[in-house]
Amino acid sequence: MFFIISGFYMSLVWDDKFCRAARPIKSFYLSRFLRIFPAYWLTILLSTVISLAFFPFGKKLCFGMMMAAGCNPLTQAIFTLANVTLLGQDVLSLFGVNQADGGLVWRDTHITSYLASIYFLVPQGWSLAVEFYFYLTFPFLMRLPRPWFYGLFISLLALELGLSHPSIAKSWVHYFLFPFNLHFFMAGMVSYRLGKKLSVQQWPRQIHLAIFLAIASLTVGYQYLPMPVEWRLLSFFTLVSLALPSMFELTKKNKVDRFIGELSYPVYLLNQLAICLAGPFYFPNPADGLKVCIVALLMAVAFYKIFIVRIESYRHRLVSVPSN
Fold first, then answer.
1. Do residues 138 and 28 make contact, with C-beta atoms less than 8 angstroms apart?
2. Model-level pTM?
3. How far is 319 from 307, CA to CA, in rounded Å?
4. pLDDT digit string (tens) for 55-103?
5. For the chain, domain boundaries
6. List of residues 6+ apart from 320 with CB closer than 8 A
């Protein structure tokens, strides 16, 4: 879902801001770089400090195997580069580390291995890597001729539907790699273009509210939809994609909604660290999950107020674009 929203929002800010810049692609890349990496690097620094301070080196819990403990020198170098740059984290998620020789092995065929995510200082960073690849391709997707753009989107969507068929064996390749997630981003881009064509911003507020309530009801009742899970997912993503322009119009001036949006990135970055600090990895007691949520939110608010507000202020000053 996040990838769809990202495609929608990047299309919006491109049309609203970057397409008017003297050097739009350079301005876009600089803005996205400053959005992702300073906060990410602060998070891996925080994870490193906490791991060294609270957990014995070599222990699996909470990044204790960071800096590639148990890896051979080549694997250490690969994980260090991936941790610093994000590059390759999606691909490395397909591998494990062989306990015998410290080399990389395919995760589905080698049971005596540690999963690669243990070696990431932000274990969920593979999805941030996928997001980063989208940012790299986005300006060129925006400039594709319409037949090429929609032809690519339909081809990727057909591939997704084919791979989702019950007769096809599930694969982690399908889950982690950017090409198999690009259709989600493009769905958000299509959603933005459709909303613009339909002049959604001119619709009455009552219509936006009705659409919002319908999607909220669909979300609550999602698990009860009487259809196979593959079609349930497809239906949900399609309806949410179509509703995005209207829901954005309804909430774009809401300060609470904006603040929640700003918190989404620090919550994403810090949630695994919160799990480690607040309790075990699995929560048989619902109170444990609540405890982790509270810790993650408190950490995210502090991280936002102390660091991200300053980073964002600098980013907006550096990447300034003349207004309409």
1. yes
2. 0.87
3. 18
4. 554 444 444 444 446 778 888 888 889 999 999 999 988 888 887 787 8
5. 1-197, 205-243, 253-319
6. none
